[in-house]
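Q: Please design a sequence for this.
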């Protein structure tokens, strides 16, 4: 167990340690890695580690004999003694027991109030490619003239190919001597060049126009995704679905849709010209056309409808596969420790099976269509040949030669054009899905020019006025009618039980979630009137899960790249990060993997804290920023924060009381409501305060 209890409040921590680790797991060998030193006297053996080596191993009593270890333990004990937590008042505990049963609670956390899943079902998002999508893809971004130009050019290319056949026929006809050898070569070559230039212009022109369109769409999608609100979009949308849009859907638009449009125009021009040549030869061929057209329309309607559904299923089936794969990779350690590899392989296999099944249906459908198209073209070929044989005395033998030459490829051309048409429809499903991304909810205005923001916030006063917050319209109110004022430069500690709403206060201040009612004012300005980016760049937040990015250590400490190395190193030394920097020859250039995979949780937190300190903002929010840091380093960090943020307003959320005991005031939060907000020493003097009862409980805990 790798420090699983660090972010819990001490009631929960104690209950988990006693009931689970010492209760349910009794009889098993248990190895607990932890910063929670208050439990050391209850374990069989303690292993003290330093710099990757075991420094000492022994029981709690044995360990007392080593001066050095005793010193470490004393420091730990001293801090543990200071550590206190909030005991919920008895009434609330009672309410808790009566209110919701544990499994109901669990259910609630997965379901919204209406009893539906938080995430929207992707299957419900049925997409029919209507004329609107065609209009948006073809017409909205390019005018009619654009397509008329390309279609005319394509017809010219097809005409050149057919004429080339006729001229070549004339040339090899021994009875015709109208043309000299060189004139025929010249004409034939010119027609071939015209045909290839026409095809090149058509395909290149359409490619360029499509690339321009899809690039713009991709950029717009990225902008929309970047500005989508966390609570209303990311919480509701599985990451696999978003990744699917940016991989499979975008890939279809980038790789192929342009070629398909070009080919469809070229192939249909060829098909039309083949029919024209046949009609020139034997006008009776035209009599077959209505039948062919009717057959084609029926087949295409049936095929395109089914193909569209299969394509939709294909796209939808990709999202769970990506989700599950992501979960499997990220949760590899947990899966292995529970010996659930086989189960995950089986589930992955099942999901993959759906994806490949869809592939099979797609190919079957293609074959079904191909066989029927073969019949249609054979019907046309048979009729034309029959007519020609019957009227062979009147027909032009060269035209017959050209026609048969063309007809060998006719069925292929017809099949190819129809399949391209249905593939295009499939790609347009992806285009439509991408268009839908442009309609996702957006955060309010990012930037807003306001002259008073020049030196705002100069003081750092924060006022909550009748402030309430809901994560989503269909969920419960999490922060309830908050009314309090934080004075400039004050250092505030925020405490409360797990789920009390502490982290939500940080989200509210940065407007990650907008207010449901009431307002927050910073230095007298209602934050909801500001541009969101303007607000966020003036507030520093160290979240509960430290986030690092792939790149160098320097980039992670100073993403904007404005702070000189000397300053970075000076601050790193102060924050106890010097050893970490020097462990690699590259120093500040050492590589950080994505998400900080190559660092310990404490190191990640330290880097995040240092990044925050270097930003030097007037308002700083720290959410359990030091939960995974050892107590000695935490003390160094506390000192550093005290020095560096002397002129800033600092809100510190912590479950360790020693982290906030020296704050100017402590805000005690319970179920989204402010219970107490006062000087911690004063609260400790008041026997009725929640703070006091907590301290009492801790005392009892120590005496045990
Ligand atoms: N994204 C979310 N969507 C819906 N409800 C949420 C979301 N995040 C948090 N909540 C709910 O809001 C309440 C407060 O959560 P919050 O994260 O603020 O608690 P906390 O006090 O920071 O707890 P902890 O000490 O465990 O970090 C909880 O009941 C939680 O279930
Ligand atoms: Mg929290």
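A: Design:
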């Amino acid at each position: 167990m790798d420090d699983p209890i660090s972010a819990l409040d001490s009631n929960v921590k104690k209950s988990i340690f006693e009931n689970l680790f010492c209760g349910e797991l009794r009889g098993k060998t248990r190895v607990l890695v932890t910063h929670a030193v208050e439990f050391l006297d209850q374990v069989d053996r303690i292993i003290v580690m330093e710099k990757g080596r075991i420094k000492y191993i022994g029981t709690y009593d044995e360990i007392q004999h080593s001066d050095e270890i005793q010193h470490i333990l004393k420091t730990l004990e001293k801090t543990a003694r200071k550590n206190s937590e909030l005991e919920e008042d008895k009434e609330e505990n009672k309410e808790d027991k009566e209110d919701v049963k544990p499994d109901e609670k669990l259910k609630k956390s997965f379901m919204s109030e209406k009893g539906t899943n938080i995430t929207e079902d992707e299957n419900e998002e049925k997409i029919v490619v209507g004329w609107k999508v065609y209009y948006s893809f073809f017409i909205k971004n390019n005018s009619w003239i654009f397509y008329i130009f390309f279609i005319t050019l394509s017809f010219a290319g097809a005409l050149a190919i057919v004429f080339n056949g006729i001229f070549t026929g004339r040339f090899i006809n021994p009875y015709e001597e109208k043309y000299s050898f060189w004139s025929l070569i010249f004409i034939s070559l010119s027609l071939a060049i015209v045909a290839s230039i026409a095809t090149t212009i058509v395909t290149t022109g359409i490619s360029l126009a499509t690339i321009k369109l899809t690039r713009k769409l991709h950029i717009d999608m990225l902008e929309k995704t970047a500005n989508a609100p966390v609570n209303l979009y990311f919480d509701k949308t599985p990451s696999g679905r978003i990744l699917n849009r940016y991989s499979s859907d975008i890939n279809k638009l980038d790789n192929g849709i342009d070629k398909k449009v070009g080919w469809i125009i070229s192939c249909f021009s060829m098909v039309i010209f083949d029919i024209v040549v046949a009609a020139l030869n034997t006008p009776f061929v035209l009599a077959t056309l209505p039948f062919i057209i009717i057959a084609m329309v029926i087949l295409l309607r049936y095929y395109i409808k089914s193909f569209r559904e299969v394509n939709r299923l294909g796209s939808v089936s990709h999202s769970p596969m990506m989700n599950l794969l992501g979960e499997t990779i990220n949760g590899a350690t947990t899966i292995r420790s529970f010996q659930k590899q086989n189960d995950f392989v089986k589930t992955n296999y099942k999901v993959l099976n759906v994806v490949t099944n869809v592939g099979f249906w797609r190919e079957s459908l293609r074959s079904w269509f191909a066989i029927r198209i073969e019949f249609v073209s054979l019907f046309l070929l048979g009729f034309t040949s029959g007519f020609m044989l019957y009227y062979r005395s009147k027909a032009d033998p060269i035209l017959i030669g050209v026609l048969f030459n063309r007809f060998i490829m006719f069925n292929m051309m017809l099949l190819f054009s129809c399949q391209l048409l249905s593939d295009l429809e499939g790609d347009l499903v992806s285009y439509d899905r991408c268009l839908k991304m442009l309609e996702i909810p957006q955060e309010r205005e990012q930037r807003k020019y306001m002259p008073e923001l020049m030196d705002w916030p100069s003081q750092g006063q924060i006022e909550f006025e009748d402030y309430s917050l809901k994560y989503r319209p269909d969920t419960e109110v999490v922060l309830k009618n908050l009314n309090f004022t934080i004075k400039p430069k004050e250092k505030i500690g925020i405490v409360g039980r797990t789920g009390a709403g502490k982290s939500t206060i940080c989200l509210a201040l940065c407007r990650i979630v907008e207010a449901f009612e009431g307002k927050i004012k910073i230095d007298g300005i209602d934050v909801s009137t500001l541009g969101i980016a303007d607000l966020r760049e003036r507030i520093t937040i160290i979240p509960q899960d430290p986030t690092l990015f792939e790149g160098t250590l320097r980039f992670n400490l100073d993403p904007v790249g404005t702070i000189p190395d000397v300053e970075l190193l000076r601050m790193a030394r102060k924050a106890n990060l010097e050893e970490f920097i020097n462990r690699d020859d590259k120093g500040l250039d050492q590589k950080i993997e994505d998400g900080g995979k190559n660092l310990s949780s404490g190191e990640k937190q330290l880097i995040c804290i240092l990044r925050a300190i270097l930003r030097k903002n007037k308002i700083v929010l720290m959410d359990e920023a030091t939960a995974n840091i050892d107590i000695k380093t935490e003390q160094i960090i506390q000192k550093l924060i005290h020095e560096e943020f002397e002129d800033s307003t600092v809100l510190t959320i912590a479950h360790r009381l020693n982290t906030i005991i020296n704050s100017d005031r402590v805000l005690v939060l319970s179920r989204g409501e402010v219970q107490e907000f006062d000087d911690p020493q004063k609260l400790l003097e008041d026997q009725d305060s929640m703070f006091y009862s907590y301290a009492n409980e801790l005392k009892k805990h120590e005496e045990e």
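Q: Thanks. Anything notable?
A: The chain has 25 helices and 14 strands. The chain has a mean pLDDT of 80.
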